[in-house]
Amino acid sequence: MYNLTLSFSQFGIQKTPFQLYDCQNESLKTKNLQRDKQPIHLVTIKIRQLLQFTEMISVIPRILTQPNKAVYNDGLDNENYDLIVRLDDQIVNQKAQNIYIAKELLGVGTFGSVYRCVKDNSNFAIKIIKNINAYNLQAMKEIKLIRLLNKKKEHECIIKLIDYFLFKNHVCIVFPLLGFNLEELLQETKYQGLSLYMIKNILKQLISGLEFLHQLNWVHCDIKPENILFTDYKAKQIQIIDFGSASEVNVNLYYYIQSLYYRAPEIILGYKKTCAIDMWSVGCVAAQLYLGYPLFQGTSSFDQLQKILGLISINNQELISNSPKCNEYFMKDNQNYVIKNLKIYQNEFNLNLPDPGIQNITKIQELYLEFNKSSLRTIQEMATMEDFVDLLKKLLEFDPTERITASQSLQHPFLRDFQFNINDILKQDFQYQ
């Protein structure tokens, strides 16, 4: 499943063009070092110097951070204000005397970079926040929230906070090292999607974690496949990560939240966030797990809204007329509001937007087309599919006040009384291949 082939470069080792000659097969007079021209002790010294030089250049620490040119923070940070980290660098919590050894760059995000580090033969993931004041404040909020979540209840679907500290003017947050995320899982299926049984297991845990979060009046604000990780490589237990964008319900944010493909329509329309935006994202994730690709693949906020309206109907026109951005995206046609044409929108605001993204599905019912390709479907499976589509409709309700909540979702027939059984999953995943 995973390529574990290792190379010299992964460990910062550079190959050196140095070899020993076989004196039995080649004459000494063909070598640069000849006994008749140089005394043996000089030959030994030169070889020793060469070996010392080889040893010196082969242990040059490989820089894990890209770009790696020193720019800010007295040469410690790159042009993006990321801390420059080299292989085997020590990242130290001086107060607690915890020393973490950097081994691998795991990922790069808006707020910073994540590295795999080792301490006492155990692996950890350390998020090193960019050296930007606003990001540092947001990181402190993330620490505060996860501490609160861990303290209230050790919820198995919420990432655990191991350690946090300031290192070279960077906030560092230490988490357990988890397994692969849902995007990587879909990649392993060659984007063919997962079985309904597997989707049930993932959604049950994801929504359970969000129910716990929402009960505390917090919103995650960035639910997407990359932020849902399995705890190991058995693909059973998941945890929600990256609370860097999370916010309390009553706190107003003056910037776009949620990744574009998973952004709720009310956020695009300028409404205040509620816990309902997380549930919209859950619906987008659920559809993607089934299809193998994102349901709405917009290239801009305008295009994303067009994609949503191409699939989801609006029953309450007041949602449009009362929205802060009604006049930006819509124009009135008789008594109804219709979204503007792309050219009209671009000309009105002097924009040059990317070409529209793909719209693969125009009706939720089209999900059945993929499902019905297999002729070996049982009555129970058909009923399960109907429940899945019904839950999807409720999650992708345009009106956030009518959208299904986390608590209600857990009582939906698709998820209610669900028990995870790895053998059933394997049976269903491979039965029709």
From TrEMBL:
- What residues form the membrane-spanning segments? none
Record Pfam families:
Pkinase
Among its keywords, does the record have Transferase? Answer: yes
This protein's GO cellular component annotations are: cytoplasm
Residues annotated as binding ATP: 127
Task: List the InterPro entries hit by this protein, alphabetically.
Answer: Prot_kinase_dom (IPR000719), Protein_kinase_ATP_BS (IPR017441), Ser_Thr_dual-spec_kinase (IPR050494)
Q: MF terms per GO, please?
A: ATP binding; protein serine/threonine kinase activity; protein tyrosine kinase activity
Q: Which UniProt keywords apply?
A: ATP-binding, Kinase, Nucleotide-binding, Serine/threonine-protein kinase, Transferase
Q: Which residues form the Protein kinase domain?
A: 100-415
**Organism superkingdom:** Eukaryota
UniProt keyword ATP-binding, yes or no: yes
User: What is this protein's name?
Assistant: Protein kinase domain-containing protein
Q: Which organism was this protein described from?
A: Paramecium sonneborni
